[in-house]
């Protein structure tokens, strides 16, 4: 049933349908309304036997979920920005303990300077945690991704945390028509969580052992193998979702106009705007297509190699920067297609801290690349030069 | 030993393993053990050499109370509460310093957990650095006695009062020197619904610089000098105190341990011993430790 709801609600309602046992969070803008919605559902007895906890910090929230997940519960949290960074020690740990925690990150910039607005610097900092990362384009995709996230994370071939990344404000605060799932549909798609191992006095097991050099590496290799298996598990789940919901969001990447000479690459909500830009440029005779990267971890190496093998130019719009190098999506993409494509890479960091990225701004950049006015390499776009005490 | 097996790597005379075995036995092994990073974790949880006969989890250094809260919440949600008690075994640094945020959160929410602080008064696992529960005058590697410094300056953080201030149902201190006291308090604690805190004074033979054979004697001297009062609070009210017949001067406790040895030769040693004696006297006054002669 289609309803006009905010991004917050599209997530909260979907979480409820997944029947989590323990929900724990700490408020942070622009995430708060997700957990406020869940708290209201809890207060009204709509979450079944679930326990809802407001923690003393994001660090505490993530830690509570480590305990709950290890005890066999299906768990949920939402956070972003400083909260995600504060959680980071716990999330690295949870991945190592192979706990299928599902969290939503409402992407927000990092301090300093303080910014509550959107970019991807927060989730990029968790790149190497062993957490699956999927970026959604709109609130329907966010809504649809929650049951899929549980199904993928809890698959015994995977068992890793899953982070659904949705752009703060641009999606969270937006009212959009969302086809809300039914309980029957989610129940038939997502079976109850049956942990492979959990804390029980009936069969005592130890979680989080310490591992000397003769055995540590084996655990980390196992994480990489789980991430590799997750590629296939994700494709199966994405496909199943398309069949049961009638909405096909694509695989690890979603490509528009795959026969193009120039490709624009982006993640998250800006993909919607870029699709429009690309369509208009094609009407002007520019051979340009769009690659929306959906899964950043595991990274869609094969898909990018295949799509870009004959491409001439690739324009990457990063919402983040790895200071001292360039945008992380661009870094990853280059490494993935090295030896498989001769395309020139044009890497741009845009929209940091919520800096506006209007349609004509994006169109101008792509046109400049297409018409040879840009050089391959890295540049910020959309900023202006300024002087401060520390240059 | 059924619940905490042989094969752990603790030193002979280590207080931690005595305390852990006593607690697990008192609860007949009906325990979910949560253990932050520290000496206990290192000596008991190496992959392939797990010494725990109960379900056990180690996550991080500073989050044991939150992990325990999560287990408790999960058991509640999954209707498995009758499976066992959620018990944290944490060191003093994990409790009073780096983990006090998550501890305060768990107390504030009054999760049905038993939090045991194994207080050996410094970061002993990493070679004896000072923690918030290191007593004044102790020479640690980060508060070493030197030409001008007489060891740690400042008080031992009063975690008992901090726990009581959270309004949790049960708070107590105990000592490895008195295992029957530990047993009694643990059995009593788990009868309360909500958060329970027991701080157990636990000798560290390497950090304290004592022979394992006198660990129990030293632990008892801490109590007999009034430096480690054994007390019990129920719903914020002091309900029991272990009385001391003839309270001994603190020197008798200090002189047996390498960590305090400098106090008997250092220029400021006398002054520090007086400060330490004053803490013992304050404890005696505050808790009424001295058995009044009739």
TrEMBL record, chain A:
| GO molecular function terms attached to this record | oxidoreductase activity
Q: Where is the Pyruvate flavodoxin/ferredoxin oxidoreductase pyrimidine binding domain?
A: 15-238
Q: Which SUPFAM superfamilies match?
A: Thiamin diphosphate-binding fold (THDP-binding), TK C-terminal domain-like
Query: Per the record's keyword annotation, is Oxidoreductase included, yes or no?
Result: yes
Among CDD domains, the record links this protein to: TPP_PYR_PFOR_IOR-alpha_like (cd07034)
Database matches in InterPro entries: PFOR_II, Pyruvate:ferred/Flavod_OxRd, Pyrv_Fd/Flavodoxin_OxRdtase_N, THDP-binding, Transketo_C/PFOR_II
**Looking at the keywords, is Oxidoreductase present?**
yes
Alphabetical UniProt keywords: Oxidoreductase, Pyruvate
The Pyruvate:ferredoxin oxidoreductase core domain extends over: 261-357
One GO term under biological process is:
response to oxidative stress
What's the subunit arrangement here?
Answer: Heterotetramer of one alpha, one beta, one delta and one gamma chain.
* Name of the protein: Pyruvate ferredoxin oxidoreductase
Species of the source? Archaeoglobus fulgidus
- Upper taxonomic classification of the species? Archaea, Methanobacteriati, Methanobacteriota, Archaeoglobi, Archaeoglobales
Gene that produces this protein: porA
UniProtKB/TrEMBL annotation, chain B:
GO MF term set: oxidoreductase activity; thiamine pyrophosphate binding
What keywords is this UniProt entry annotated with?
Oxidoreductase, Pyruvate
**InterPro entries recorded for this chain?**
PorB-like, THDP-binding, TPP_enzyme_TPP-bd
Q: Name one GO biological process term.
A: organic acid metabolic process
Q: Where is this region: Disordered?
A: 127-147
Where do the Thiamine pyrophosphate enzyme TPP-binding domain residues begin and end? 37-199
Subunit structure, as described in the record: Heterotetramer of one alpha, one beta, one delta and one gamma chain.
Specify the protein name. Pyruvate ferredoxin oxidoreductase
Source organism: Archaeoglobus fulgidus
